[in-house]
Amino acid sequence: xxxxxxxxxxxxxxxxxxxxxxxxxxxxxxxxxxxxxxxxxxxxxxxxxxxxxxxxxxxxxxxxxxxxxxxxxxxxxxxxxxxxxxxxxxxxxxxxxxxxxxxxxxxxxxxxxxxxxxxxxxxxxxxxxxxxxxxxxxxxxxxxxxxxxxxxxxxxxxxxxxxxxxxxxxxxxxxxxxxxxxxxxxxxxxxxxxxxxxxxxxx
Amino acid sequence: xxxxxxxxxxxxxxxxxxxxxxxxxxxxxxxxxxxxxxxxxxxxxxxxxxxxxxxxxxxxxxxxxxxxxxxxxxxxxxxxxxxxxxxxxxxxxxxxxxxxxxxxxxxxxxxxxxxxxxxxxxxxxxxxxxxxxxxxxxxxxxxxxxxxxxxxxxxxxxxxxxxxxxxxxxxxxxxxxxxxxxxxxxxxxxxxxxxxxxxxxxx
Lengths: 203, 203
Prior knowledge:
four-stranded mixed beta sheet; Glutaredoxin; 8 helices
C-alpha cells in the first residue's frame, strides 16, 4: 500500500503519522507537494476526487481518503493498542470525542485559516469579518475543552485515543497560524504537555 | 436506555430514527423541546455538555452524544444489517462517505442556516455575506455528489449505509430551509428518490 501525505504543518497527514507511530506501523509517506498544488493534479484527483491528502492506496488500487477513515482501516488490521476504544461504549465515546474535536475545536480554526489568514487570501474568496469572528469561537472552544479535561488525562477518558491525536494536531496547527493556546486553560495546557511528551508527537 | 431527541425538521435526531428503523430496533424517543430551549437547560446540559440532541442515556447513566457515535453504538450491539460496512475496507469507505457528506454537503447547509437564515437571526450573531455565499458552495457540493453517484446506487457503493442516512437528512433539511436540490443533478435526484422510497425515510 501507498500513503500519500505532506509534511508539517499540514495537520491531517500528521494525524496519520502520529497514529502509525502509536501503533508501531512502519509505512513511508509518499509526499504530494502542496506548494505546487500537486494535490489538485489529475493524477492525485484520480486517487481522491476532493484533491486532498492524506490518501491511502491499497495494492488492489482501492483508495481510502479522510484521515480518520484511513486510521480506522489500520485499527481494523492492527487492533493493538486500541486507539478507537475497545468495548462498544468506549468506541462510541471515542468517536464522540473525535467529532467534538472536529466540530467544536477544529471548525473555528479551519474557518479562520480559510477566511482570515493572509496565506489563503490568494487562493480563496475570503469573508474576513466572519473569519476573524472565529478567534473568539476558538477561545470559547478552548474554555469548553478545558472544563471537560478537568477530571481526566485524555479526551475520551483514562486512555490516549484517536481523539487526542485529532485535538493535538488541531491545536498545533492553530498555534502555527497565529492562534496559540491561552495558558489560563490549565487543564488543556496539562493535556497538551502530556500528549506532546509522547514520542509519536514528533511525527 | 433512553434516547433524547426532537421531531422533524431537526436533522440529527432524524438520522438516529432512520438508523433504528433500518435495524428494526424499537426505541421510543424522549422529546427535548427545542422551541422552549430545553436542550440548554441544566438538566439536559448534564447529559450533553454541548446542549444538543440526540443524546443516548444508558441504564448505568453513561451518556453518548453525537448522532454518528450513537448509531455506531447500536451497530456494535446489533450488527445486522450492517450500516457501517462489513470488511475493514468497507468500513473505511463508509466512514469516508459519512465524513465527505458532513464536510462537503452538510457544512455549507449548516453555515447558511446559522449565518443567513431569518429563523436563527434572533439567536446568533450572523455574518450574512458569508452565510449567503454557502448557497453557491452547496450547489457545487450537489454537483460533486452527483458525479460521484453516476456509477453506483448508494454513496458507499452497492449497499445502503449510514452515509446515505446522513446525506438524506442533510438534503431534506436543506430543502426545508429553502435550499432545494437542483433537478439538473439527475444521479443525485435518482439517489434521493431511491433512499426516500425506503420505509425508514418516514422516521
